[in-house]
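In the current project phase, we have settled on a layout for protein records. A sample record is reproduced below.
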Amino acid sequence: TPSFSAFVPLPYQMQVIDSIYSLDYQIGAHEFLLSGSVGSAKSILLAHCVISHCLRYKRARVLVGRYSLPDLRLTIWRKILEHLEGIGIDYSVNNSRLEIRFPNGSEIICRSWADGNFTRMRSLELSAAIIEEICEQDDDEGLDIYNEIKMRVGRLPHIKENWIISATNPSSPSHWAYKYF
């Protein structure tokens, strides 16, 4: 995993990054789906986008979500921590709560929903969100949690750049995410 400062985006990664910075957010939050095979560098792009957002905006709050908390801890959480190594600023990590706080007041918070309780998302005020392996949950509850998260993004009025990026390996055309995107 390259550090934040050593990251050189691949062409498709640069397209996503450029889109995030150039879209018109007056119409609301934008939604992205990254779909690619194992090893296509989706996770490092997610990590980079989360950290970049937190560094660019004071008091940003980004949700990092995945169906299973143990899987989240072993994958995207680990990737974010690796990507932060050598960043050159002080930040604090709470490994028990899976939270990172930056000196500018921004934070990364992690959540899972395998227990089926999505209502705890309702009190969150987010500027952005990433959902790893969005196709893990192939029933309508997956769409329900996605919509709960979507309604929370854009609730920090001082941050105009609001987005949700979901990542997955290719799935069946019958999956709710395939239909949605």
User: Anything to note?
Assistant: The radius of gyration is 15 Å.
